[in-house]
């Protein structure tokens, strides 16, 4: 099916965010896809084997289900320890550690409290044995140490802002200054809400987005102890609601941030020694002339650093951006997700297949991405998953 709206005439990143395609060419290597999904419709994590030739998914076993009633809304594979999978359970305030068995089934190794309320993301340090879990509800960041077997133990909990200083915790306005006309994307500015945390590719800093304060925070990180240093913030456009961000796969000085409430993409630069951030540009992730409400959600980079893919909820589209040689983003087009309310997406290991979790229409849709043009094309499969929230891919049939 043709793109919705033309606008203007994909090595995984070292921080292991899981939001860039791993390679740019097709591969015959088999892989698995695990889908975390929201209760009460979902009962946990749904596992599939993928056909590397078509990208199509087939459930493992009778149901392919690993029971987890706590809304596993973010999954992250451990690239340094193949076979390990981490789940942040938004509804249960917990983190689960799994091992993928030879048949693709998941074995629970550990369940532990995440340290706060509403864990919504989990990322791994690129070289040191630590994990980072931000909490939407309590607006704090948990640092967890990873043992040799992948199991976790708490190190520290860091608030998004200093609650003894009202100015530091000042919230952004309810309505985004750069939102489309008529937008009612106004949720999330009644309190601080941490949405994502990620190491810089060199591991020297940890960054976290705070949707309620319209800030992107940066802490220096000690890879020996797991301690965070003094925080500095970048103030974003008023009411923007920063959500997910990625580093440029080929230039760690550049990163891109998707704003949920404003439905905009911000192009940022990071000074490598101080960690100081500056914003270069902010452009819409929606078609020119769009009016009404949209909630932007996930952001994924191609491994070659040529394209970005942003998800729009309510517009229900994949916004495709081209990245110039200097990193400047330019909106190319939009592709319909073939579903409702796309919350997140994931590339296959080869970078050819793209899996979109359509939360409200209870399915995952499969797309083929052209390596030259960067454009996604529906690959002809709808995969039934109740309230899918996040996908993760792992090697193995």
Features of this protein?
397 residues, mainly beta, Methylamine Dehydrogenase, Chain H, 5-stranded antiparallel beta sheet, 4-stranded antiparallel beta sheet, 29 strands, globular
Outline the structure in words.
The chain has 397 residues and is mainly beta. It has a single domain, classed as 7 Propeller (Methylamine Dehydrogenase, Chain H), CATH 2.130.10.10. The chain contains no helices and 29 strands. It has strands spanning 31-37, 44-50, 57-59, 65-67, 72-77, 84-89, 94-100, 106-113, 123-124, 130-134, 140-146, 152-159, 194-199, 205-210, 215-220, 232-235, 242-248, 251-259, 264-270, 277-284, 295-301, 307-313, 317-323, 329-336, 342-347, 353-358, 363-369, 376-384, 388-395. The strands form seven sheets. Strands 1, 2, 3, 4 and 29 form a five-stranded antiparallel beta sheet that branches. Strands 5-6-7-8 form a four-stranded antiparallel beta sheet, with no helix packed on it. A four-stranded antiparallel beta sheet has the order 9-10-11-12, with no helix packed on it. The two termini are 30 Å apart. Mean pLDDT is 93; it is low at 1-18.
């Amino acid at each position: 099916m043709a793109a919705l709206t033309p606008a203007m005439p994909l090595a995984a990143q070292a921080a292991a965010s899981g939001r860039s395609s791993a390679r740019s060419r097709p591969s015959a290597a088999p892989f698995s896809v695990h889908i975390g999904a929201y209760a009460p419709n979902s009962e946990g994590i749904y596992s599939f084997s993928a056909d590397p030739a078509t990208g199509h998914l087939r459930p493992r076993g009778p149901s392919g289900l690993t029971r987890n009633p706590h809304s596993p809304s973010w999954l992250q594979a451990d690239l340094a320890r193949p076979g390990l999978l981490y789940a942040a359970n938004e509804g249960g305030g917990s983190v689960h550690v799994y091992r993928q068995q030879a048949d693709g089934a998941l074995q629970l190794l550990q369940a532990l409290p995440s340290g706060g309320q509403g864990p919504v993301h989990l990322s791994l340090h690129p070289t040191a044995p630590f994990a980072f879990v931000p909490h939407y509800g309590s607006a704090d960041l948990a640092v967890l140490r990873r043992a040799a077997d992948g199991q976790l133990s708490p190190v520290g909990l860091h608030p998004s802002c200093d609650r003894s200083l009202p100015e530091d915790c000042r919230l952004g306005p309810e309505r985004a200054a750069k939102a489309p006309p008529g937008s009612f994307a106004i949720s999330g500015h009644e309190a601080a809400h941490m949405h994502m945390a990620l190491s810089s590719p060199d591991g020297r800093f940890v960054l976290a987005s705070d949707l309620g304060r319209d800030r992107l925070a940066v802490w220096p990180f000690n890879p020996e102890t797991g301690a965070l240093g003094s925080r500095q913030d970048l103030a974003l456009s008023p009411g923007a609601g920063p959500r997910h961000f990625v580093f440029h796969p080929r230039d760690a000085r550049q990163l891109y941030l998707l704003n949920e409430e404003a439905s905009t993409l911000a192009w940022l630069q990071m000074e490598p020694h101080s960690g100081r951030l500056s914003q270069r540009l902010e452009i819409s992730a929606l078609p020119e002339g769009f009016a009404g409400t949209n909630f932007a959600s996930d952001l994924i980079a191609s491994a070659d650093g040529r394209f970005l893919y942003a998800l729009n909820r309510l517009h229900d589209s994949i916004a495709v951006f081209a990245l110039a040689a200097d990193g400047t983003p330019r909106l190319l087009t939009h592709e319909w997700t073939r579903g409702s309310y796309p919350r997140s997406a994931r590339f296959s290991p080869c970078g050819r297949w793209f899996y979109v979790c359509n939360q409200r229409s209870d399915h995952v849709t499969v797309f083929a991405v052209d390596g030259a043009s960067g454009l996604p094309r529906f690959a002809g499969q709808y995969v039934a998953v109740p309230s899918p929230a996040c996908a993760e891919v792992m090697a193995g049939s």
